[in-house]
Write a structure and sequence with these properties.
Layout: H1 11-80, H2 86-99, E1 105-110, E2 115-119, H3 134-138, E3 142-143, E4 147-148, E5 154-163, E6 169-178, H4 184-190, E7 199-203, E8 209-211, H5 226-234, E9 237-242, E10 248-256, E11 261-268, H6 269-301, H7 308-316, H8 324-329, H9 336-364, H10 374-386, E12 391-398, H11 401-408, H12 410-426, E13 433-436, E14 441-447, H13 451-467, E15 478-485, H14 492-508, E16 514-516, E17 519-521
Parallel strand pairs: 15-16
Antiparallel strand pairs: 1-2, 1-6, 3-5, 4-5, 5-6, 7-8, 7-11, 9-10, 10-11, 12-14, 12-15, 13-14, 16-17
Length: 524
Amino acid sequence: MPTRPKPKLNLRVLILVFVLFAALATLANSFWVMFKIQKQELIDNALQANRAYAARIASGVEQVLSSDQERLKYAATLLGKGFGDSRLLAGEAERLLGQDNSFNSVLITNAAGTVIASAPEHLRLDGQSLQDQAPLRLRQPIISKAFKSIAGNLLVFISQPVFDDKGQYLGLVGGSIRLEQKNALQDLMDRQVREDGAYVYLVDSTRRVLYHPYPERIGEIVAEDPIVDAVLDQGSGALQALDAHGVEMLAGFAQVPSSGWGVISQQPLGNIQALLQETMSKVARDIVPLALFGMVLIWWLGAKISAPLSRLADSAKRLDSPDSYERISAIPAQYFESWQIRRALLLGTSLLQEKIGRLNQQAQSDALTGLANRRAMQDTLTLWQQAGQPFAIVSMDIDHFKRVNDTFGHGVGDETLRAIAGLMKQNSRADDLPCRVGGEEFVLLLPNSSLRSATDVAERLRASIAAANIDTVGHITVSLGVSLWLPGGVSVAAALEKADRLLYQAKQNGRNCVVAEGRSLAVS
């Protein structure tokens, strides 16, 4: 009677091959899922960070330009009372130039555009005609587009018209900012050094580069670039796109209102990918020893495994599923060998889920303070809203935090943020969720809290921070706004906006106070 050839593979080899394949498939799937989640999280965080960074720099540039315009406006008022006094004109030009390093040159012209006073003297501008006649025609404050001077220098000209007491137009006073030289604008931009591979540059409305970390690019007209298009058309936002050189960038951008200039903070996508690869390599190094241990154990037990084997192998292919631990625990272990394999798989599942949990925790936490980040806050609010659970929102902002960074540096600023985070934790209940949602902006969520109770918590927090003595900085204060969300009421977004409005009301009330719906607590 013919028989089939004897199989060359025994059960032990088949078991090893199958389990090895399942384990590798599970690891590959887990790595792929973690890779996609972590990559998108890093990209989103980079876009938001660049957007916030660009907005902060745009605000700083706006302050510099506004300060320049105010100084020129004051000078124009003085000149209008003595425009015929040549000594007054020359003295005012010298005063404006020497007041700070905002302008590289100052000039005063008559109504025909002829320079009648200027500084510094070695430029010999007196008697020359104004190169750009637009300020004379418009007779209003102007920040010019970048242009080449007669000497070939790239300039921006800021001017104010001069009128006498009767409203007659006499001429203008203006200062030039030479983009290749040191001045207040250059100093501001040069301080914006990033440690994450990002860099900042500045363009005007004609796409000309006004500032760039590579000086040779200053004055360049940017060709087709969707990021530059976005900042000039949209004003502010974030974008992942190819720049003019074909490099994929993660960019945030903001516009300077008074001049129409665009500030762009961007970093190559490759930087994010390098960071992600490093993270995944660390995860792999931690998992591989455990995987090797599991395979050796399975090889040793393979000859004695029987019925439970198929169920254990099937479960091994889905170690990353949420119910894997319960499913493996339900498999009967009638003898020591099957019990041992089940135990090894449970150990692998626990460690893998623990590592995934740590990655998720990192994605939900603010790296600087350890508080919940904006994403964790939104997830919590969604859960509470779906459960119909009322909650209070305390929106908090550090008063004059920019002074801390400007005076002591960003390192001390970071220590201050960590100290504030520690005080928030001390003043929070077990169920409360303290969050950091921006630079110096914090939110405290209080579930099942009344408005009065939340206001008392906010006041205790305010008093605790005001009384704390922070190293180097000393005493600082905060302003807080308190709102309440109830099921069936306004949306969660509206409740958050209300807390922010109340926070800004606290700022307007003098800071260091709490403003809640219908009541206000001043500094005690």
